[in-house]
Specification:
eight-stranded mixed β-sheet, six-stranded parallel β-sheet, 11 helices, alpha/beta, 2 domains, Dihydrodipicolinate Reductase, domain 2, Rossmann fold
Amino acid sequence: MRLGVIGCGDICRYMLLMAKLNRRIRIAGCVDLDAGRAGKYASYFKGARAYTDYKAMIREQKPDAVYLAVPHCLHYPIMKELISSGIHILCEKPVATTLEDGAEIAELAAARGVKVGINYQYRYDKACYRMAVAARSGDLGQLYYGRGNVPWHRKEQYFSQSPWHCSREQAGGGTLITQGSHILDILLWSCQSRPVRVMGLTGQKKFTAVEVEDLCMAIIELENGCLLQLTSSMIASSEQPVTIDIYGSRGTATYKGGLLFSRTKFLQVRVPPYRPAAAGIHALGRSLEAFRRWIVLGEPYLCPVEESLPVLATVLAIYRAAQSGRPEKVPFV
């Protein structure tokens, strides 16, 4: 698969490392408004060219697909144009900063037969995948509740080096939409029930000069009665592992993340060794390889764009609840 890259920021360097390790992927071009940064990444790949204009890259290189990693507010307009050109897309989350724009992207992609994936790569973390499939398969019994905690640490450079992170309009929010939405995605995917109502609080405890939250706590009620609790933070004194717990009538699953190695413990139940189909040394690499297999072989990708919409709807409802001080309904998508 010949892949074009639009946006050469922090996450891009990790994805390009995964691409470098995958012999079935060829990087056609790297695009960034910073020509030096685009050139640096393009130089890692034989035949890749650097661009400051993604339209020129598409026109000249005609890639099979594009990896999109730009500020959140740019996802919608760029994807809309790529879809109209018939270009398949792997986009970093969120699909958009409004639910209306996200739903339009999903509708346009379906109408044009374009494959759009949203890179919620925790679905390709082996331990996380096993936990989620166990929950979905009934191994834990009836699901009662789940908890997710993202105790991460960010320094001032997170905002100073990427000023768009500071802006509610450009980023869509802070730690919840950028970090916590990964774990919200896993909880919703595991429970297989649509969110209907939320309560939430946000805070600015450390980074008080920006427009977005650095701490969020939320409760999500699902249609099947299951309750979810989510905490997302970028202000832990030191970076700590993500944890997810899912409690069912027959057993409990407890996930603990890690940079290269993660694990899930099961209590009271024996669970088969479920594994994601795609190979790779890291969840990012497996997500990228699974996307390639979707484009080239037609094998299903675990997070097509339509499955990201309930996550976005829930995130936005939590923000509304934090502002209103009342429970808020989650619109059906």
